[in-house]
Every structure is written in C-alpha cells, then in structure tokens.
UniProtKB/TrEMBL annotation:
Peptidase M11 gametolysin domain ranges (all copies): 53-117, 122-300
Region (Disordered): 1-26
InterPro entries listed in its UniProt record: Peptidase_M11
Lineage start: Eukaryota, Viridiplantae, Chlorophyta, core chlorophytes, Chlorophyceae
Protein's name in the database: Metalloproteinase, extracellular matrix glycoprotein VMP33
C-alpha cells in the first residue's frame, strides 16, 4: 500500500492497489534530485517562529573498530525529552532560550544510524560521532551559516544540551564563541562559552531574540553626559525577551572611531531560573556586562555585580551599579560615565 509522507512527518494513505505514475506533470521521474537553498538566519520579526526539521545522523564506524554507542531511541530522548514530544531535552532549551522562536519539530525529527541515498527536506543535519574518535572539541559546525553540526558521543557532547544549542547557534549568522576576560576562560554565562545556560544579552541581541529596555538601544555620549546617571528597570533575561538589556555605545572614547578597535557594551540581569537554572552560582542574581567588537567575532564577559554593589569599567570610564530588586527578578540598574575618576559618579 502506498502513502505520501510530508516534510513535517505526516502520512497520507492511498488506496490499496493504486499504482503511482512513473513521472510527474513535468515529466520528472523518481530519480530527480531537487536542491533548494534554505535561509540560514532566523526571521527578524519577533512574533515569528522557526521550526527545525532535524535529521540526526549517528556515525557508525564498526568496520574501523569504532561502533556507535548511541541508539536512535536514545538520540530522540536527548533531543526531544523522555516522552519524545519536544517538551524536554534539547528541544525544551531551544524554546526556553529563544522565547519560543526556535523550535524542534518533534513529528519530523528523525535519527538514523545508516547512510541514506536520499533525504527528505530537512533544514539541518547533526552527525553523532562514535566513541573513540579523537577530536579536541566536543561539538562543532561546518562554518558560519552552514546546515551541518556534529557532536561527540560524550557527556560534554551529545549528552550536554548546551553543546547542542551552541553548535546550532553557530549556524545562524556566524555567531562565535563567548569568553570571560576576567579569568581567561570561556564565558560561563553563555552556551557558546562553557555555561549550561541560555545565550547572553549580546548574543540575544545579535540573534534578534530580545529587545533593549526603553531608551537603552544606543546609550552614547549624548544620552549619558559625564556625571549624570541613567537608570533602567531590567528583568532577568529568562523572564522575557522584551526590554532585557542596555546597549552602551562608548563614542566618548578616542578609539571608537576606529572600527577595528571600537566595542559596544551589553548590560543585562541574569538569574538562575528557567533556561538559566544551571547558571554558575558566582554569576547568578547579578548584573552582567559583555563587550562586543564591531567585527562581531565573539563576546567577552568583562564585569558582573550584585544588587547594592557596583563594578567600575575603567577602560570605558563607566560605573555600573546594581540597585534594588523592585519586583520578582527585576533589578534597578544605574550607569554613569566619568571623565577622570569614578568618584565623579
């Protein structure tokens, strides 16, 4: 009996005994291959959703003594959760971290351990490498804007949802790794660093997943005179995509006119709840400051402070002060620019 299987996984049965024609209306037979370019960027509109129809390919090199240890059922659990419905696993974190804008289509999701000669119209492909295949990284992607990612069969590879999300994010517009300039180690406030959390504010802005606070999209020298503080009520990024960060454009620095040296700052509040539940305690319930170069080659965590405390960013002649909590995980944040010394603030 014949059936038509759509790209989303749904099946339409056909009458028993029906024989399909050998060619379609255009004279094309079953061996025809059609290639269609897929857009790699997420939709710009904040109310649009993007669903991945993901094919996970588990690499089995048994002939080389490197058999796969991850089963197709286990892969489904990793990506879609214990019930396989997309309400758990990596799919849940996709939805939490993107505020519902990036989803995994649980119906279309397919995991295979064999080579296939043709593929349904999947938008992206993830390869699970077998244990024993030595590689210095636990996950990766084939260049910015690509459709292909790979994961090691390891606890820090396919066993870590943040590694899955990190590799996925590298596919969208070439988002790079995030670092911690304070300790010369990867940023624990981002999955593209070393954190089991959602993206930081700079990355959320780059992806178009979040918006700045009112009046905080371009805080430059005109908006922030010397010695005059600006104040914003910032909800923790896990709460909402709306009004979650301050974007500082430090055009008062002489280096800002040089595009190779110019950097912007993104200031946001992070709390260890929701998609950020596993945020490192040393960074939880604090104001974070990230530095981003004009070339967008990566973000750097350069400062963090708690409520009723401050951090001085001497490279920017800037003071960031965490005020009082004015609501559930909503913090009053103040910023002030000085000319010679922080005491001017």
């Amino acid at each position: 009996q014949w059936a038509i299987r759509q790209g989303d996984g749904s099946v339409t049965p056909m009458a028993l005994g029906y024989e399909p024609p050998s060619t379609d209306d255009l004279g094309q037979d079953s061996s025809t291959t059609v290639l269609s370019a897929q857009p790699m960027f997420l939709p710009d509109a904040t109310d649009q959703k993007y669903q991945q129809r993901l094919l996970v390919i588990i690499m089995d090199y048994s002939a080389c003594g490197l058999p796969a240890s991850l089963t197709e059922a286990a892969a489904r659990t990793v990506f879609l959760g214990a019930n396989g419905d997309g309400r758990g696993g990596a799919a849940q974190k996709y939805e939490q971290c993107s505020y519902g804008k990036l989803l995994l289509n649980a119906t279309a999701f397919t995991a295979v351990t064999v080579n296939v000669s043709s593929c349904p119209p999947f938008t992206h492909y993830t390869y699970i490498l077998p244990p024993g295949l030595k590689c210095p990284a636990s996950a990766g992607t084939v260049g910015p804007g690509a459709q292909h990612t790979w994961l090691q069969t390891s606890a820090y590879g396919v066993g870590r949802w943040a590694s899955i999300l990190s590799a996925t994010l590298h596919n969208y517009g070439g988002l790079m790794d995030s670092y911690n300039i304070l300790s010369s180690y990867l940023d624990l406030s981002s999955p593209t660093g070393a954190g089991d959390v959602c993206p930081n504010a700079a990355e959320l802005a780059y992806l178009g997943w979040a918006t700045p606070a009112q009046g905080a999209n371009q805080v430059d020298s005109r908006a922030l005179p010397v010695g005059a503080a600006l104040s914003f009520n910032l909800p923790a990024t896990y709460l909402t995509p709306n009004g979650t960060y301050i974007r500082v454009v430090p055009d008062w620095l002489p280096t800002y006119s040089n595009i190779t040296l110019a950097k912007n700052l993104y200031i946001a509040v992070r709390v260890n709840k929701g998609g950020d539940a596993l945020l490192w305690p040393g960074l939880a319930n604090k104001v974070h400051v990230h530095e981003v170069s004009a070339s967008l080659r990566g973000t750097y965590l350069i400062g963090a402070t708690m409520s009723l405390s401050q951090v001085v960013l001497s490279n920017y002649n800037l003071v960031v002060y965490g005020g009082s909590w004015i609501g559930t995980d909503i913090l009053r944040v103040h910023i002030c620019r000085y000319r010679s010394a922080p005491q001017e603030c």
